[in-house]
C-alpha cells in the first residue's frame, strides 16, 4: 500500500523541454541506470502499464501510438536511489507518451518518431513536464540495449568487444554511445543501405574516440563476421541478419522490429538463440522477429526465456556458456519513458536549485 501523502508545493512550474535540452539534462550513463530500474519494475510489479495502443493511419504511411504507465511511490524512491538522487520527497507518478511513427520520414529529412512525453504526479494529477518524445525514446532505447549487453554478452568480450551496428539512423549513434558506457569497444563495424550515412557515422565515431577502430561494410555478412555484439536498428520488413553469419557466443540487440510486419532476424536465428525481452506481454504480440516464428510454430512462447528484469532480479538465468548466442528483443516500454522523464525533470529542478 502506498504511504499516505499530503499536498506539497510544486518546486517549479510545469515546463517543456525540446530534444537538445533533454540531451543536456540527462547523461546517457544516468539514463542507463534509470532504464535498468525500469526493466526491474516491469518484472517486479512496481509498475503498471498496458500494451501500447497503436492506431494505423488511413494513409498507410504511419501510426499513432499511446503509451501510458504508472510507478508506485516505492518504485520512484528506488529509481532515484539508483542514480544517486535521494533525500527529497517522492510521490507516485504516471506518464503517457503520444507519438507518431512514420518510417519513411528519413527520406524527407524528418524524424521517424515524433511526439511528446507528459509526466504527472499520480497523487493529485499535476502535470510536471512535457518532453520531446523522439529524444526520450532514443535515449531509453539505447540504454535498454546497454543494460542487456552488460548482462548477457560474454564477460570476456566486455573488455574489448567487436561491435556491429546495422542501420544508420539516430539509434546507431545512441547505441554506440550507450555501449561505450558498459563495454570497451575495440572495433566498430557499420552497415547501412546508405553508404554515405554509414561513412558519416564512421567519421563521427572516429572524431569522438580517436583510438577506436572503425570500418564500414557493404554486406551485412561482412559487418557481423566474428562480432561479439550485434545491434539491428533498421525498419526492415524482411530479415537482414542470417543465423549462418552470427558467430558462436555473440550477443544481439534486436531493436528495429516493433510491429508484426517488420522483421530483421532470420527465423532460424531466433530459434537458435537464447531469447530475452524487455516486456513479455508486448513481445509475443508486436515484433515480427518473434510473432513470425511463433505463428509458424518454429518456436513457442516458452522459447522466450525471460524478461531482462527477471534476470536482473536473479529469478532467471541469462547466458549459460561462452558459445551461446543471446538475443535481447526490445520493443520499448512505457515505464522506460516514465523513468527517463522523471530523471530529466529532477535534473532540471536540481539545476535550478528548486528540487524539494
Keywords summarizing the entry:
356 residues; alpha/beta; eight-stranded parallel β-sheet; 12 helices; globular; NAD(P)-bd_dom_sf; Thiomorpholine-carboxylate dehydrogenase; ODC_Mu_crystall; oxidoreductase activity
How would you characterize the overall build of this protein?
This protein has 356 residues and is of the alpha/beta class. The protein has twelve helices and 15 strands. The chain has helices at 19-25, 28-44, 73-82, 133-152, 170-182, 195-208, 220-224, 267-272, 280-283, 288-296, 308-312, 334-351; strands spanning 15-17, 47-48, 53-56, 63-71, 93-101, 113-121, 127-132, 161-166, 185-191, 213-217, 229-232, 251-254, 274-277, 304-307, 326-329. The strands form two sheets. An eight-stranded parallel sheet has the order 10-9-8-11-12-15-13-14. Strands 1, 2, 3, 4, 5, 6 and 7 form a seven-stranded mixed sheet that branches. α2 packs across α4 and α4 (133-152) packs across α5 (170-182). The longest helix has 20 residues, at 133-152. The chain is globular. The chain starts with 14 loop residues before the first strand and ends in a 5-residue tail after the last helix. The mean pLDDT is 93. Belongs to the ornithine cyclodeaminase/mu-crystallin family. This is Thiomorpholine-carboxylate dehydrogenase. GO terms for molecular function: hormone binding; oxidoreductase activity.
